[in-house]
Amino acid sequence: MRIVLVTLFALWGAALAQGQVTITYWQYDFRSKVEAVNELIKKFEAANPGIKVQHQTFPFDAYQQKVASSIPAGQGPDVVNLFYGWLPTWVKAGYLQPMPAEYIKVLDSEFSSLAQAAKVGGKLYGMPTAVRSLALFYNRDLLNAAGFKTPPKTWDEFLSMAAKLTVKDGNKFTQLGYAMAPDGQDHHLVREVLIRQFGGRPYSDDGRKVLYDNAAGLKAFTFYTDWLKKYNVGTLGNQFFPGNNAYRDAFIAGKVGMIIDGSFAIGTIRNGAKFNWGVAELPLEKAGGRKINYGSFWMHGLTPLATGPKLAASLKFLEFLVSEETQRYWLEKVGELPARKSLIKDPKLTLDKVYGPFVISLSYAKATPFVDEIGQRKVMTDAINRVLLENKDPAESWRIAAAEEQKLLDNFWK
Amino acid sequence: MKPPEPAQRRVSLATREALWAFAFLAIPLAFFLFIRIWPAFQALWLSLFDWHADPSKRPFVGLEHYEQMLQDRLLLKALQNTLAYTLLGVPLQLLLGLGIALLLNAVTRFRDVFRAIYFAPYVTPAAAIAWVFSWMLSPNFGIVNEILSVFGIPPQPFLTKPSQALATVTMIVVWQNLGFQVVLFLAGLQNIPRDYYEAARIDGASNWQLFRHITFPLLNPVMVFSAVIGTIGFLQLFTQVVNLNFTDQGGPLGSTLTLALYIYQVAFARFELGYAAAITVLLFVIILSITLVQLRLLSRRVEY
């Protein structure tokens, strides 16, 4: 016991003498990301002998709980990984500290415009390594077999393909043209893509007012629910196929013609799909119509626990995590698109058959200004489900959604 | 010379034993106080404040969170659902548990094997159960709908529609808890002395009379225990609900949302731990009152 104590003190002394700082980084458990960060920490520590980085991970469904309880107890991370949609909530509850002002200039000039969502009230609370967008994944074999040589360019083409690819045997589906997933990515599709394509706007510029409760918004919403009610694209992904991400799993199983999913799904689909598949930009309302997409990202934030020498070390580590070098490595290792403009413009990326459509979409993608990500997702998912599952009138359901979401926004900004 | 007086024993043996007992009890008691009771009071305290990571920045709001509950539509939904789960699940669980225990009690061969089979779901992780049921209950590919179609019944949506989701979750939870229930009832049944049955048989009692007048009354303690534990379990339902609809937790359309899940979402997705604490207090009051009523109504002392 005595020896252990003596050793500990000796080590402590040595650490002090060297000016050693230990900082902690948290993210949720996702194998390729965990491995990548472990590698990155090795590199970072080699270049910065005075700093040690502890890397801790938690299962996704326990992650926010861990953060919520640890930081007030002074035990948590100095640098923390979070979904940008959680940012306003975390800032309001005091879980993040603003970054020094000079980083704002870097973000404004060097990062994808999506990353602007890392600011709250003009202050910057973190920066992303990677960004994501949506695109259409299609099963090339199924499309070809049905006589379609290229993926759809407009929603009209999309719907006629989907109808032709949907196969029913008695009262059961054996194949879907499109797997609808309101709680997958489709709630983003309605909110950020369809509303704008139909000439509406989802929110005011400051994100505090719901603006979709009008004719354009309703037209977009009804258009989406009609895919099932009128256009015979098939059925809901989770009624067609089992599992948590039914729409994606069904696509991977080769039973669905098309799905809309994020760039984060590339890895899973690439590993699972045993057929020819392709990726295309999201269809347009009409040829030459408006291009629009939903973009999102995970960012590295600075918690109030990073103070004194830990603050300087944390900033250094954060800078390293969002550096060009790291972003290049991240794309290779994790398969997520870089957040820096300089890398996104790389023709090797824009011309890539799989990454290309996502990268091009980034240039016109918008990030929803969430204040209560789970609540707002539920509002939109429920709006769709009321029509699809309970046969409610779309206009009525849409009105309820707008009122509910406005209440969430008011509740947050009060 | 007078022999020295033996030192007066000031502490009697009984007291000393009691002291020892208290000394040993103190450890679990302290544990219970600090790990269980203290946090409960902390929740009560917390519910009077708005949350902030820095304790010095938590504004006192008094009973505001309790007022907020009156306006909260989702909370009402969660409350209704939680009561529906309990009213549906507990009687079903007791009935099926008792039925299977009676059958198993009559079986003499392989009883342990059956018991193990019934108990297995109880120790299976919820995520695995959710996965298996999502396959079995799939409207399109599931075996259950395959079987139903043999009888000409059209495919049922089960977990994917609000009208059936809550009942389906309840069935799955009952199925999972059944093993524990059966083991409890079996233990209770085997505690009933054989002589009672033999005596009653000699008096010409029928099987129904045996059950009605011997088995059922003598199982009362087990019944009360099961009803109370089962009720608390359903009132705190969380894990299965989360796992059975992972991407729309509590859905579709809030039809499976429970109080515990709502508390979790308010606390850890919205970071409103003050409000979440207030709902926790509500849940605590509900559990306490229902348990007290149950103990009062159900407990009967039966002796023969």
From TrEMBL, chain A:
Gene3D superfamilies: Periplasmic binding protein-like II
GO terms, biological process: maltodextrin transmembrane transport; maltose transport
Keywords, sorted A to Z: Signal, Transport
Signal peptide: 1-17
One GO term describing the cellular component: ATP-binding cassette (ABC) transporter complex, substrate-binding subunit-containing
Molecular function GO labels: maltose binding
InterPro entries membership: SBP (IPR006059)
Record-linked Pfam families: SBP_bac_8
Family: Belongs to the bacterial solute-binding protein 1 family.
Name of the protein: Sugar ABC transporter substrate-binding protein
Upper lineage: Bacteria, Thermotogati, Deinococcota, Deinococci, Thermales
Automatic annotation (TrEMBL), chain B:
Name this polypeptide is given: Lactose transport system permease protein LacF
ABC transmembrane type-1 domain: residues covered: 79-294
Subcellular location as annotated: Cell membrane
Membrane topology per record: Multi-pass membrane protein
Keywords assigned: Cell membrane, Membrane, Transmembrane, Transmembrane helix, Transport
Family designation: Belongs to the binding-protein-dependent transport system permease family.
Domain of life of the native organism: Bacteria
Main subcellular location of this protein, as a coarse class: membrane
Transmembrane spans: 20-41, 83-104, 116-137, 165-187, 218-238, 275-298
